[in-house]
User: Fold this.
Amino acid sequence: MRIVMIGAGYVGLVSGTCFSEFGHQVICVEKDAGKLARLQRGEVPIYEPGLDDLIAANMKSGRLSFTGDLSNAVDEADAVFIAVGTPSRRGDGHADLSYVFSAAEEIAKALRGYAVIVTKSTVPVGTSREIARIVREANPKAAFDVASNPEFLREGSAIGDFMRPDRVVIGVEADRAREILRRIYRPLFLIETPILFTALETSELIKYAANAFLATKITFINEIADLCEKVGANVHDVARGMGLDGRIGRKFLHAGPGYGGSCFPKDTLALARTAREAGAPLRIVETVKDVNDARKRQMAEIVLGACGGSVKGQTVAVLGLTFKPNTDDMREAPSLDIVPALTAQGAKVRVFDPAGMKEAKKLISGVAWCADAYDAIKGADALVIVTEWNEFRALDLDRVKQSMKRPVFIDLRNIYNPGEMEAAGFAYRSIGRPTKKAGT
Assistant:
């Protein structure tokens, strides 16, 4: 099949590359001249494990290419996927669909034969039908159908998520479009991946509902962690006891500093706004967003408490800046609340992240940028783990303690054992766990 992917950002680049790995002919359209030049040289502008090798292999095979010319790319396409950004709109929190609608107009003018126009971007209910209206208005003679095919990619494991997904959701009404999309996803039929065909509106809502539910699980266990600290319970054991119930499941029950990233914050906000306007407010989702925002701010207070109530004049090492490991994405990362709060309180903050330093420097100022974890820890009065990168999970604790001025260790991701840390001589603070008994 001949596929055009409009937008070579995170979703478009991963999806387009994986489609080419399926054996399809894929052209990714990117308007940013600098990014396009890098992609055409085989350079990957985002950090995603394994993506660079996959791009190189498929460019070499001739199945994957990049262009800035949408018109020529669309001319002979069987399917055109729209994978442009849909950031939160300033002022009201709705998804900004200006890039989506602009792409739809350009596609309409470029169409010469039949093609399926597919929304891969996360868009509110009703967007696919609006795209159809825009295309018909811009090109009344266009032969096309619209479809909705939301992505469910986790940053850091996106290739595996695409190649071995839990499910594929396709909103489509026309038989011809359904058959084209069935052929595009045929490799997944062969491994018996559930393919769910739905109405357009259902498909659009599934993505928002799924993200809102996962955000709710995270926020719920974070509040349970706060309760655990008050009553002497262990949130790890609580989460495990909950997760063993098949109706609940163990995933997304890890207490921490709150969710961030490109999806959960904007999608919960957009869904809440849509529901309000539809006259069916989602009060749980609204509360989740408010609680999560407060959660990230609360983390700085935890650091202050562990440091005796003040960090003025103290050196604080912060390990991990991205919103999660295995990505360079800084969008809505908890560090963006924690680090500025510490510097505002007079701390000298030293930071390190394995992949996010370049992006973080655009957003964080007034800190010392360090070469590695041990460089950040050197001379610190306190160490704070914000993101659970693998290389932070097995730090040489003797070396850490010797390097620090004071052995204050704040673990916002609960990756160390409280009893072992105290036995090693650290004043250890984690989230929702008692700190006196080894093995808890």
